[in-house]
Amino acid sequence: MPGDQNYGPALEYMRDAWQRSILFLDVLRRRGNIYLEQQQKLVPNVLGFGAELVLDGRTLERPVNYLLVRIEPPEGVDVDASKRAFVVVDPRAGHGPGIGGMKENSEIGAALGNGHPTYFIGFLPEPMAGQTIEDVWNAEAAFVAEVSRLHPDGGKPAIIGNCQAGWQTMIMAATHPDLPGPLLLAGSPLSYWAGVHGKNPMRYSGGMLGGTWLTSLSGDLGGGKFDGANLVANFESLDPANTSFEKPYNVYANIDTEADRFLDFETWWGSPILMNSGEMQWIADNLFVGNRLTSGDIHTSDGIEVDLRNIQSPIVVFCSWGDNITPPQQALGWITDIYRDDEDLIAGGQTIVYSLHDSIGHLGIFVSGKIATREHEEFASAMDMIDIMPPGLYEAIIEDVDEGASNRGLIEGNYLFRLEPRTLDDIRGLGGNSTEDDLRFATVDRVSNINRRLYEQYLGPFIRTTTPPDFGAWARKMHPNRLRFGIFSDENPAMRLVAEGAERIRNQREPAGQPNMFAAAEKTVASSISSTLSALGTARDTLTEQIFHITYGSSLLQALVGLDPEGAEEDRKPGREALREQARARRRADLETRWSQGGVVEAALRSIMYVRQAEGSADERGFAVVKQLYGANFSGESMAQLKEVLRDQSLLMRLDPERAVAAIPELLPADLESRSRTLQAVKEIVTAPGQLSGEGKRRLKRIERLFNVKARQPKKGRADARD
User: Fold this and answer.
1) Tally of CA atoms within 13 A in the half-sphere of 187 that contains its CB
2) Which long-range contacts (C-beta less than 8 Å, at least 24 apart) are formed by 664-668?
3) What is the rounded CA–CA span in Å between residue 476 and residue 73?
4) Exposure check for the chain: N or C terminus, fewer CB within 10 A?
5) What local confidence, expressed as pLDDT, does residue 717 receive?
6) pTM over 0.90
C-alpha cells in the first residue's frame, strides 16, 4: 500500500523496542539466576583467574573469614618466583570478593604480566563468630608474612588495598611495620571528614542520620549481623540518575552488545555479604563518623596506639577527580593530618607517591581495563623504583612515549613513569576543610556518641529482647537490593515465558535500521530523563549540605556537646610523643658523624642526587640503568641494602648539601680504575632520562672534578657491574 512507507520507520522501531524489552527482561532473569547461584556457593567470587588456597584464616588463633590464595598464571604468562610478590586485598565493603581480578586486564593481571608472583586476599560471605576488625588486620599480617616466607629472595611483598582494604592495610602496616613492602592504596578513604563544599555529599550522611546509632539498630535487628546490601544501597544513592535509569537503559538500548558485560559486573555488585555488627559498628564509629585513624585515637586491644607514622613502607595513593565515594581530599588528606610540614615527613623516613586521574569513577579504579593497562601496569613495573626512592612526597606522572624518546630502550611499554617532587602545600592546594568545617564534623562525632549511648541504654535492650530470632534472615531476604535480583529469577513462574520469548527473538532479531527518527527520539527522551534525575540528585545534595552546615555549625549545639572552637584544630593532630622526638634527635646526631663515612656506593649516590636535584624529577630510565649496573646481584636483599644507604645519603644531602658533596673525595677509593668505573656509572644514571639542563651539566662537571679521573667507558654491549 502507498502509505506503508510512511509507517515503515514507526513499525520498525516498535518491533525493535518490543524485542529489546523482552531481551532486557531476560537479562534481568539471568541476573537473578546468577544471584541465586552465588548465594548457594561456599566461596562466591568473580575472580577471572585460577587460584590455589595457601592459608585459611579460619585456622588462625583468632579465626576470620578471610583466605589467602595464590593466583595461577594463565597460559602464556611466565612468573619469576624470585621477583617481588604482589598481594591484592579486596574490600569487604558490602560486595563479595574478586573485584581486583575480574578479568585479564586488572590489577592481578598487571602484576602477573610483569612476572610477579601474585596472591589474593578474599573473604567468605559469613563472618566468624566474634570476629573483629583487629582480627582482620592481624590476619592480613599473617598472610603477608606467609607470602614473604614463600618468596624470600624478592623483597617484602607489595600490597594493593582497594577501597576499604586500603585503610585496613594501612593499619596492618602501622601495627606490623616490618612485614609489608610498598603499599598501593587504590580509591581508599583515610580522611573521612575531608572534602570541598558543593561536592562529596557522602561525608554528610553520618550527621544527617544522627550518628551511628542506626548501625547499632541494624545489627540488633539483624541478629548480630550487618547486611552489606545496606552499604551497596548507600553507594547507589550517590548517583540516582545512573542507578535508577542510566545503567539499565544502557543495557536496554544496547541489548545486543551490553548484556554479557552487564551480567559480569552485576555478578559482583549483586552478591552482598555479611559482617558482624561489632565490625560495622567499629568502622562507623572510628572511621565514617569519628575520623579517628589520622588523629591517632585508635588503639589495639593491647592499648597500643595505631599511628600511621610508624609505617616504614613506601605508600602509593591512586585516586581520581571523578570518584564521588573517595575524592582526592579523602584519599590524600591524611598526609597533612599526620605530618606538620615537609621536614616532618622526610625526618620520619616516609616516601609517599600519589597519582591523580582526571575522570575515572570509583569502581573504574579497580575494574577499568584502560586503567589496568596504563596506571596499574605502570605501578607494577615501577614498584621497585618507588621502593628505593628517598623520603619525601612525589606525584607520579604517566606519559605516552614514542620511538623518538631519549633512551627509548630503557622504557618499558608505551608509557613513561616519572616522579615529580611535591610538598604538603600541593596536597593542601587540592582543597579541604576549614577549621569551622572540622568543628562541624567534630560536633557530629559528639552527637553520635550521645545518641548511641542513649540507644544502648534504653532502646537497644528492648529491640534485642523483642526481635524474633529469624527476623534478621527474613529482613535480609526482603532487602530491596536483594529482592530486585531474586524477583526476576526463574523462581518467578512468569519469567519462564520471558525466557521462551527471548529465545525466539534471538533467532529472529531485527534491530531498527539507522537512521530512524523514532530511535533518535528515544535517545532524546532518555537524555532528558537522565538530566532531570541528575538535577534532582544535585538539588538533594545541595539541600543536604545546607542543612548539615546549619545544624552542626550552630554554636549552641557545639556548646551543648562540650566542644571548644579554640582547640578543634589541635584535637585532630596526633600527639608529638617524646620518644619519637628523641629518636629523631638521636638519628640527627648519628648523621652528623657520617659525612665522611662509607665508600664508593655512598659517593655515587651523593653524586647522583646532587646532579638530579637540578633536574627535579626522576623516571624509570635512571632506575633501569641502576638495575643494569647491579646485574644479577639486584635481588630483594640488595635492594633493601641500597634503600637503607640511599635513605641515609638523602638525609645528609638535605641536612647540608654543600658539606655532603664536598666530602665525596673522602669516600672514593685510591684505585683510579674503580673511581673511573664509578664515575661512568654516575654519568649513565644521571643522563638516562635525557639531556641535562645547564645547571645539571655544571653540577656534573663539579662531580667530575671531585672524582679527579676520567670516566671509564663501558665495553660495548653491556653495562659494567658495580664493585
Assistant:
1) 29
2) 664/603, 664/606, 664/607, 664/703, 664/706, 664/707, 665/706, 665/707, 665/708, 666/596, 667/596, 667/598, 667/599, 667/600, 667/602, 667/603, 667/606, 668/600, 668/603, 668/707
3) 37
4) N
5) 44
6) yes
